[in-house]
Recover the amino acids of this structure.
């Protein structure tokens, strides 16, 4: 993550300065002619790169010795929400280009806006370099490393920045995990990575094969059975400070998904390294809660497995006994996510949570339904669903409510077991079927299911991130907890 | 069509007696009216028989008792059919309708049935009758070898009620709507070699008898109007396209020859057979594409319903009728067509033809009628089936009020809608390198990008030049049912007829 320092004034070392501008009227007088000539109106998303002139740019502007410093005007339009400031910060960071150090001039703005601008810049600046060699990294053009956030009062801004930074770090953890290739982030490596979160005060418990067998988690064991990398169930707990039932996050953690015996086509299979984006988002949310010392207790139950082909792989036609005791007929081994989630929901219910939310890159059907702009939202509790949707809008991770109908459940009737895992044939509403399936394991706990297939990656860069994993869900869950689960009177 | 009558209660001497029974408070059934009468006449055989069958009056329960012996050897019904209504006080018209639908297959082997509807309020009694009638639909035109004993015999259903007059009053408009539903189901069921665009346009003329003004436009008129999109779809077939304009002037009492108010408008996709064109569909299941005109079928049925019940509304229905065929004359992927609106479209996939037809018909509709709102119905995308399945049709709209009215109307007639998102990120997927837009936006969000395409042809109207309220119902998953439902036999559902009739009745009459 960008190193952010709060400073009252620029260092004057020649780093580019990003200056948020709300509409044409916000352009500094001396630059109006240039702005007008370049067609810069200060609308959201616009940026204008100008040489910084000490005489024109104000008392702090300009580089010593007349070296060519840059001033980047960043249009904010009429920002109403934190998200608008975040987008402006991200757009500005992108416009600054290949520089190591830069300044973001939030002087005169409220501390919340300053924090959001910096948060956006950090989100946009994220890169995944771990899989490149040292030599390649050394030869690469410079990229932003440090940001001076210029504010009227660093002391007044600091608490706002710390809160915002927690969500950003959670999101970036989720992206780091999702970006890691399948041979690096194996189930064991993922579990080990989660264990390091203990340093932030999160209790981490990882269940191996023996424990899973003792618990009877037949879904997770079957899905992970074909791989040389054994399945794991990670349970992360954040105690918070309220004596209240926790909110539970359940995340699908398929470190790689070949589809199993119902093998996926080769084209596009590489993307399946991110089939653990749900678990990654939950882990990121836990980190965010811990970093900002959230008073709300939370637990994350993350089933980790690799869906591989092999002599020990589970088969279409198999009947599994799940942790809850229900039996499930396997129709398609590539509908594995719902099996591991079902067992994880069963484990999560033991914590008697106030609410359960599961996140999963679950179905291609949700991509056909909603495209890559919104995640599908299913659930049993209208209030929880409305809260999740509101949290998503607030952080730019929008959801859309989808139905679980009686027919969807009927379609899961099995000839041999308690239920089928999915329906077969063309044009099936598989996202709805998956949700109907999971509902059977959610019991009477308020539950929401976010099908994040399609939104877990950005097809191209936008204001809040480069092309690649989006971390979708981490900030949403953090925001959900902050808005709806931290009020002690509610509990 | 079944003959439905409302009569004073009297025990039938043959046929079927249907007893719609609520759940008893303490698990026992309370028999009243004709139910009590037949129980008494049979020496308590009805109560004993129902108890033995485990019948408690629960919703969805039914039981059949055969020819109960009546005291003194009096002639009585050949079968007594009990239908559960659920908890008393919780009965809704929708539930009464579903109960009526459930009763139908149990009595269809009798010539006559009497329904003991004394305990039902008049609207519930009428709803029960509607359910029965809707479920009785059959399309037997092309069966020539059905044996006599396999044919349903039911001809007449009498609802016995003390409030027979009130029930009859409630029934009259329902029957008109049912006729619209049956007309729509007939059109959708017809095979594509029989029902081509010309034939379907001809059949729209039956509405003239109901007072609907019917105009038919052919390719010549379309060329003059510049409907390049619709003509492009049609050009591969030897069958000529048609555009049918149906006007119902009901606001002035149904007698006027002219609209006295700004009309409401309904537009239907009527691809009488869709091979996919040059972007041809796989062979498996292609026969289903005879119902690719179900949107148009619903609009025709709706106009029949509105006119049949003399709805106090000015309404127009427009259907774009064409066939989508591959041939040497057919439209190619890569072609650019100019729509009537002047906007150009790059045809990427000739199987995304429905939106091309709708684009021109919608534009024509608003140019000519400047309607209060437009609702289009179309079996538009496979993506909506993947998104929602077969229980909900997709609802897309630029107007929250209209969308809410539609969703509520759908809920109350059992034709459920589910609102789907729209917005600029989806619209972007239609960007073309050569024309104003492409006709497809890719697999992701496929039904949404289709709706965005249509929205590009929805214009502005009125002194404020506000966008015309518009809604699009993607009925690809709901136009045809693969199994029997309570009020819909397997086959063409006529989805949309009752929904839109209810929309008009609830918000746009008087």
């Amino acid at each position: 993550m960008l190193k952010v320092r709060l400073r009252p004034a620029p260092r004057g070392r020649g780093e580019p300065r990003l200056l948020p501008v709300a509409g044409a009227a916000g352009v500094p007088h001396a630059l109006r002619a240039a702005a007008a000539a370049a067609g810069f109106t200060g609308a959201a998303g616009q940026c204008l790169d100008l040489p910084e002139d000490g005489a024109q740019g104000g008392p702090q502007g300009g580089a010593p010795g007349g070296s060519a410093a840059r001033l980047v005007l960043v249009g904010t339009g009429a920002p109403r929400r934190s998200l608008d400031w975040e987008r402006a910060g991200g757009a500005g960071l992108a416009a600054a280009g290949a520089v190591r150090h830069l300044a973001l001039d939030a002087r005169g703005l409220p501390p919340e806006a300053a924090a959001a601008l910096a948060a956006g810049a950090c989100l946009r600046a994220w890169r995944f370099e771990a899989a490149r060699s040292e030599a390649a990294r050394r030869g690469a053009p410079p990229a932003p490393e440090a940001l001076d956030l210029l504010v009227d009062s660093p002391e007044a801004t600091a608490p706002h920045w710390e809160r915002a930074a927690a969500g950003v770090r959670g999101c970036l953890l989720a992206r780091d995990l999702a970006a890691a290739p399948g041979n690096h982030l194996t189930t064991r490596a993922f579990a080990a990575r989660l264990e390091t979160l203990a340093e932030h005060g999160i209790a981490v418990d990882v269940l191996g094969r023996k424990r899973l067998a003792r618990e009877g988690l037949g879904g997770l064991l079957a899905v992970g059975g074909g791989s040389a990398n054994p399945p794991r169930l990670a349970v992360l707990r954040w105690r918070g400070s309220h004596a209240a039932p926790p909110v539970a996050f359940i995340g699908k953690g398929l470190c790689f998904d070949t589809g199993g015996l119902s093998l996926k086509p080769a084209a596009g299979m590489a993307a399946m390294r991110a089939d653990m984006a749900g678990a990654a988002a939950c882990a990121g949310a836990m980190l965010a809660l811990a970093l900002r010392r959230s008073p709300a207790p939370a637990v994350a139950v993350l089933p980790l497995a690799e869906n591989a082909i092999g002599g020990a792989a589970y088969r279409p036609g198999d009947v599994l006994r799940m942790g809850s005791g229900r039996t499930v007929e396997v129709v398609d081994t590539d509908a594995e996510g719902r099996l591991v989630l079902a067992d994880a929901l069963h484990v999560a219910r033991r914590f008697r949570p106030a609410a359960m939310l599961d996140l999963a890159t679950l179905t291609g059907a949700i991509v056909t339904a909603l495209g890559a702009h919104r995640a599908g939202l299913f659930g049993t509790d209208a209030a929880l669903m409305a809260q999740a949707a509101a949290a998503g809008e607030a952080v730019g991770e929008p959801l859309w409510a989808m139905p679980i109908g009686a027919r969807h459940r009927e379609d899961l009737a099995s000839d041999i077991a308690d239920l089928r895992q999915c329906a077969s044939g063309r044009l099936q509403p598989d996202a709805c079927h998956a949700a109907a399936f999971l509902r059977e394991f959610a019991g009477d706990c308020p539950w929401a299911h976010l099908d994040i297939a399609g939104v877990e990656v950005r097809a191209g860069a936008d204001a809040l991130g480069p092309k690649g994993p989006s971390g979708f869900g981490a900030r949403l869950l953090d925001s959900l907890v902050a808005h709806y689960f931290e009020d002690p009177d509610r509990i | 069509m079944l003959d439905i009558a409302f009569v004073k209660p009297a025990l039938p001497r043959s046929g079927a007696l249907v007893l719609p029974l609520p759940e008893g408070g303490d698990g026992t059934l309370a028999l009243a009216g004709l139910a009590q009468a037949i129980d008494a006449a049979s020496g308590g055989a009805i109560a004993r028989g129902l108890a033995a069958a485990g019948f408690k009056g629960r919703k969805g329960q039914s039981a059949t008792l055969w020819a109960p012996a009546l005291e003194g050897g009096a002639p009585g019904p050949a079968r007594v059919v009990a239908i559960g209504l659920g908890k008393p006080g919780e009965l809704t018209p929708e539930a009464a309708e579903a109960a009526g639908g459930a009763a139908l297959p149990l009595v269809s082997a009798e010539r006559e049935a009497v329904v003991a509807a004394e305990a039902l309020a008049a609207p519930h009694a009428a709803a029960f009758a509607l359910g029965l009638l809707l479920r009785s639909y059959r399309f037997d035109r092309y069966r020539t070898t059905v044996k006599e004993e396999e044919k349903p015999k039911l001809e007449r259903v009498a609802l016995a009620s003390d409030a027979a007059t009130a029930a009859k009053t409630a029934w009259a408009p329902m029957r008109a709507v049912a006729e619209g539903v049956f007309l729509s189901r007939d059109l959708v069921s017809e095979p594509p070699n029989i029902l081509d665009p010309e034939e379907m346009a001809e059949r729209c003329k039956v509405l003239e008898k109901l007072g609907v003004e019917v105009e038919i436009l052919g390719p010549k008129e379309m060329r003059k109007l510049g409907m390049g999109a619709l003509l492009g779809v049609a050009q591969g077939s030897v069958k000529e396209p048609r555009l049918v304009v149906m006007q119902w002037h009901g606001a002035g009492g149904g007698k006027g020859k002219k609209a006295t108010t700004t009309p409401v408008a309904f537009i239907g996709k009527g691809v009488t057979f869709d091979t996919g064109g040059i972007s041809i569909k796989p062979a498996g299941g292609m026969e289903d594409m005879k119902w690719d005109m179900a949107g148009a079928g619903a609009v025709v049925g709706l106009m029949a319903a509105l006119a049949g019940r003399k709805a106090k509304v000015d309404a127009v229905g427009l259907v774009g009728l064409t066939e989508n065929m591959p041939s040497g004359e057919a439209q190619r992927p890569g072609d650019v067509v100019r729509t009537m609106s002047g906007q150009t479209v790059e045809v990427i996939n000739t199987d995304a033809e429905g939106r091309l037809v709708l684009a021109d018909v919608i534009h024509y509709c608003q140019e000519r009628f400047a309607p209060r709102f437009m609702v289009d119905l179309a079996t538009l995308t496979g993506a909506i089936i993947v998104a929602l399945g077969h229980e909900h049709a997709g609802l897309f709209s630029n107007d929250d009020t209209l969308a809410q009215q539609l969703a509520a109307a759908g809920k109350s007639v059992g034709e459920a809608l589910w609102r789907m998102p729209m917005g600029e990120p989806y619209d972007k997927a239609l960007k073309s390198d050569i024309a104003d837009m492409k006709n497809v936006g890719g697999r992701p969000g496929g039904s949404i990008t289709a709706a965005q395409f249509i929205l590009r042809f929805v214009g502005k109207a009125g002194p404020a030049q506000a966008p015309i309220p518009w809604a699009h119902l993607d009925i690809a998953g709901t136009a045809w049912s693969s199994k029997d439902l309570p009020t819909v036999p397997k086959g063409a559902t006529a989805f949309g007829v009752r929904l839109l009739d209810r929309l008009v009745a609830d918000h746009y009459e008087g």
Notes: The first helix of chain A runs from residue 32 to 38. DSSP finds 16 helices and 20 strands in chain A. The radius of gyration of chain A is 24 Å. The interface with chain B takes residues 365, 367-374, 400, 402-403, 405-408, 411, 426-432, 454 of chain A (CB under 8 Å).
